[in-house]
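hey so i finally got around to running both of the ones u sent me last week. sorry it took forever, my laptop kept dying halfway thru and i had to restart like 3 times lol. anyway pasting them below in the order u listed, first the sequence line then the structure token line for each. didnt double check formatting much so if smth looks off just lmk and ill redo it

first one:
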Amino acid sequence: MSEAVERATNAFVEQIDGPVVSFFESCVHCGLCADACLFYTETGDPQYTPIHKLEPMKKVWKQHYTFWGRLLHGLGLTRPLSEADLENWETLLYDSCTLCGRCSMVCPVGNDIAYMVRKSKEAMVAAGYSPPTLKEATLRSIRLGSPMGISMDVFKKQLGHAEQSCGLPIPLDVKGADYLVMLSSSEVLAYPEIIEALAVIFKEANVSWTFSSENFEATNSGLQIGSADIERQLVLRIVEAAEKLEVKNVISPECGHAYTAVRFDGPNLIGRPYKFKVLHIVELLDQLRAEGRLKISDKIDTALTYHDPCQIARRGGVINEPRNLLGMVASDFREMEEHSDMNWCCGGGGGVSANERAHELMHKVFSKKKSQIQSLGVDALVTACSNCRTVIEEDLEDNEMDIEVLSLTELLAEHIEKQG
């Protein structure tokens, strides 16, 4: 057994907990998960069946946790995990799974396949098997604080540009503020208008908020590559920044996996509860709406629809909030046939969009989202995840579809009622 295979085997054994054992034992091999995965539905290739992506972990489970598996393995009658297994399944795990969780929704026995894929990635990372570009992004996150290599100096310059553009002060390091706002690198680099939008909305709603000069990044490359240790390290940076400023709430940006990491995984990763509350920006905006602090001056008359980011809606439960907000600002909102917790993924989550090797496949499976959009006859699509926004924008352009992709936060800021 090679050193890499030994590391992977040991890591799989460590990751096989009670839920994983129960999931493998209860799987009835019905194949329903296949029809819930856009990588299977859009290619017709059975290798993309979600449960099939777990074969290496399943092999280790059988050989270490089942009677017949241990017996046959001990007699040398079963083939142990090999480097070929790791090489073949590394591409399946990283290239054709966005951790969207749609397969888990349809499993008749309640198996959380996305949970097991996440655990399988831990073994792959331990053995050194993960996409090169995802490794590079993760190293940048550790060393520089941003998967795109954005320094704090660059971030501060973007804050300065935003101040000049909108004519409003952008608070930094305000101790005791109600809300510490985090951003993703893609927002800072590709969609800096989000900073101005936040400043405008928070001024009109009289919100006490701040950014931190210790850390602005909420994107968690540890979650995407599958390393709990790295995920913990990156979450802890947010926690330390929030506790230093003694804020009451941390606001996760328009980024799906950032939300999952800081809100749901974080307390378990750092081993203690937070001293603050975590909200997605859309949750805060809907809260302001409900309190009568978010008022709209006019509505957009463009026919539009909403794309539910998987981690925010399906796995995070933020479903009604964006629709409440769109109800304020959109006069012609058209719901996708499959939406909310059963919406289809954009195809680029879970680190797939950061994995250059997977881009051809990612663009191919966009056909599912393309058909959803085309059936509605809309001119614009709104979402609350910058990664979804980027993936959808690129694919719409590749498909020569003249449809604008909008940030929900930015849309609200454009139509907010200004007091003067």
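and the second one:
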Amino acid sequence: SSEVGSLAGLDANLSQRLNLESTVGSGAISVVTAADGTWSVNATGFPTAAEMIHVPSTTIWVHPLIADRTSSLVLAAAVDGVHLDGWAYRSTARQVELRRAHCGGSFDSVFNAPSSSCSPPTARPGRSMHERGLAIDFQNCSSRSTACYQWLAVNAARFGLFNLPSEPWHWSVNGN
């Protein structure tokens, strides 16, 4: 949008973050409830697994918009002796599975409970940056004392990734 373009001159970092979010889109989910009370989810407007790009020497698959920068991040960390690997893109169906496992199996637990009520915290389906391929959970960043977290805390912003403060392992284009 023109607002994002105008912002580029004032705050290039914020402009880039907003542009990524608007380019990838928000997607939408709908829930279909059967007569027997079971439910299923239909997701539209989200990128698919086939659209994701593999980051070399990792198990990470990300949206094409951040593939080059993620590859550069992984290489820069390796040069500094830090191995980065983990998980990024996940489908909405996988997000629902994780919510069931981390938050409880009820409809309310999956779709209405706050992320903080889950163990570990898990975004509601349709709201995870993983569903867009714009977030990475780094496997070696279980706490702020790990070499992985400490390296990312100093360097990740150069590559356009920001930490979700409640999860040391979770880095995304907007910190969510």
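quick thing i noticed on the 2nd:
The radius of gyration is 17 Å.
anyway thats it, ttyl
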